[in-house]
Amino acid sequence: MSQAQAAPIETPKWVYRFGRGAAEGTADMRELLGGKGANLAEMANLGLPVPPGFTITTDVCAAFYEAGQRLPDGLKEQVEEALAAIGDEVGAVFGDAENPLLVSVRSGARASMPGMMDTVLNLGLNDVTVEGLARRADDKRFAYDSYRRFIQMYSDVVLGVDHHLFEDILENYKNLNGFSLDTELSAEDWSSLIDQYKECVERERGEPFPQDIYEQLWGAISAVFSSWQNARAKTYRRLHQIPDDWGTAVNVQAMV
Questions:
Q1: Given 3-state DSSP classes, what are the helix, strand and coil percentages for the chain, each rounded to the nearest 5?
Q2: 167: part of which helix (H) or strand (E)?
């Protein structure tokens, strides 16, 4: 008689959604969702107008470090499903050329650690979606400025390209063109700076700035988990007696 097959191992629930007057989490789930994630869940459950999003749990942070800083199997499907739910709520699509969904990726430990870990804003912008944002906002200057800010932030946080390099490019451009303030730059100026920022990334890393929005997303999520062990976060935890094994959650939320 053949031995009965073992039941497949069920993937843990790694992702908890919030938005549209409801959330999968609650205020008393700080250990799993972190302080920020638990608070967002509570506000959504109370019916407060919270931009929709989802929290990736502190259990994923533990699994990430146990696997040598690799994200666990099963997370991809849960994140993509939650992203689609955000898009349904706000009426946009992640990566869409005409109506792109943009998200923020932020940390959220059980204890407040302001400014100690990394954040990425306006994730989902690339050479195609920035044009969709410009048309939707009817404002090319706003869209191009948002994109160049995203390139600088993502390159610094995720790719390890020093943010001072981008600041130097901007200051040199302003000096050469007689500008004193950022507000004086036009859409065409920001477009030119986008090209220079991307050239800087390729020069520093030997490869282009990522245009694949899912590559951007996984890079940002991994970077936020990695920032749990950066020098300033470890120093802050030591000073405030926060255990190293608590880990951080990651909150992904629609930009509004």
A1: 55, 10, 35
A2: helix 163-177
The second-level CATH assignment, the architecture, of 15-254 is 2-Layer Sandwich (3.30)
Contact 244, 237 (CB under 8 A): yes
Number of Cβ within 10 Å of residue 221's Cβ equals 22
Residue 256's pLDDT is 85
| Distance separating alpha carbons of residues 190 and 64, to the nearest angstrom | 37
Domain spans of the chain, in order of start = 15-254
176 token code pair = 């050469």
Q: Return the number of other C-beta atoms located less than 10 Å from residue 68's C-beta.
A: 6
Provide the residue type at 76 as one letter. K
Write phi, then psi, for 48 (nearest 5 degrees).
Answer: -75, 150
Q: What is the pLDDT of residues 98-148, one digit of tens each?
A: 999 999 999 999 999 988 999 999 999 999 999 999 999 999 999 999 999
Backbone angles phi, psi at 28, to 5 degrees: -90, 15
- In eight-state DSSP terms, residue 157 is I
The β-bridge relationship of strands 22-23 and 119-123 is unpaired
DSSP H or E stretch at residue 231: helix 231-240
Encode pLDDT of 223-235 as tens digits. Answer: 999 999 999 999 9
∠ Cα 163 167 172 (to 5°): 150
b/e per residue 128-160 (b: at least 16 CB within 10 A):
ebbbbbbeeeeebbebbbbbbbbbbbbbbbbbe
